Amino acid sequence: MQKSTFINWLLVASALLAAPLQAQDFNFTQFYASPLHLNPAMAGTTPHYRLSAIYRNQWPSVPGAFQAFQASFDYNIDEANSGFGLLLSNSWVPANGLTNPIFSGHYSFFIPINREWVARLGVSAGLNGWSQDRTDLTFEDQLVTGGPTAEPLRVRGRVRFDVGTGALIYNRYFWAGLGVHHLNRPSQSFFDDGDERLAMRWSGHLGGRIPLRSTRTEDLMYLAPAAVYQRQGLFDHLDLGINYYFKPMLVGLWYRGIPIQRNVRGRVNQDMIAGLVGVRVGNFMFTYSYDVTISGFGGSGGAHEISVILSPPYDKRNKRGTRHIDCPVFF
Questions:
Q1: By the 8 A CB rule, do 321 and 305 touch?
Q2: Which of 15, 25, 84, 251 counts the most CB atoms within 10 A of its CB?
Q3: pLDDT in tens, 94-130
Q4: With contact defined as beta carbons under 8 Å apart, do 310 and 71 qualify?
Q5: What is the model's pTM?
Q6: Residue 93 near residue 85 (C-beta atoms within 8 A)
Q7: Given this model, what pLDDT does residue 134 score?
Q8: Would you give the end-to-end CA distance of the chain in angstroms?
Q9: Residue-wise DSSP of 281-329
Q10: How far is CA 251 from CA 30, 38, 57, 82, in A?
Q11: Where exactly are the structural domains of the chain?
């Protein structure tokens, strides 16, 4: 790659990729592999426990592009009508040295409405951190003099308290929920006297499961359509798609955008079309997805996601009398 081309890409990456860290949270195409990131009320929506991990590499053709990793664990306790969860995540942009580590605890309380429906209320609380390593950055005075910079190169960082809440209602074949994140709008400034605040993120989501072939204990083949709308500050987007599961394989097709909106350039407000493929091996679900960029940001390389979910199936024979109802959003 020519030096001028590299510098252009670096400037684009610094300008565009800094925005998600400073103005909005990152999002996963495989949102179901990051349940606590979507809604605190998702904690404990599996029969026993769930361990999930997901990695996203966005715009890999851009030098120093955005990356994110997230791992979560949640556990369901029917006897206490409760679910508990822990979330650990980090996102980083090598182009400008920014990182955003997050650690949070989640709790949900579920209310059996009747034999078919369950409602859940959830809360989350944790630490939201920001840091910038400036040692690998190039500053204006270096371009002019060719020597070392006069800028301070120490690592800057802050940790803020962060809370969220959410609600969820579901039966075996349908789910709908609302998550509200950053209720206290934590500061995202590196300076003590800064007043920049992280905007609240609203996440509305619904979906279902349409069985095509089943036994008494499991669905061997089904369709799982879903829609997720998220808004944070001036940014919003809608994810629409469907997964098709035929034991043990999974394929899906997803779209992100709001076709009825247009951006400042008069173009349709849309981001990507994604395809995914997965396989279930025992209690594990492995999934890979690729986003094809359709926003006009050509040459970005799209986005890759890899996820792993460990979740033992529910066995009614071992839990007689339980009030558990499967939530169809997960495998």
A1: no
A2: 25
A3: 777 788 999 999 999 999 998 889 999 999 999 998 8
A4: no
A5: 0.84
A6: no
A7: 62
A8: 43
A9: ETTEEEEEEEEEE-SS-TTS--EEEEEEEE-PPP-GGGSTT------TT
A10: 12, 21, 20, 32
A11: 3-318
Nearest to 120 by CA among 38, 28, 224, 231: 38
- Angle ∠(82,86,89) on CA atoms, nearest 5: 150
- CB-based contacts of 3, cutoff 8 Å, min separation 6: none
- Give burial (CB, 10 Å; 0-12/13-18/19+) of 315: exposed
* 331 neighbors 309 (Cβ within 8 angstroms): yes
Provide the residue count of the chain. 331
Q: Contact, 80 vs 58, CB < 8 A?
A: no
Please state, as a whole number, how many other Cβ atoms lie within 10 Å of the Cβ of residue 156.
15
**Residue 299 in contact with residue 317, Cβ under 8 Å?**
no
The mean pLDDT value of the chain amounts to 83
State the DSSP code for 81.
T
Query: Of all helices (H) and strands (E), which one includes residue 222?
Result: strand 219-232
Kindly report the number of other CB atoms within 10 A of residue 311's CB atom: 19
Q: What is the CATH topology of the domain spanning 3-318?
A: Porin (2.40.160)
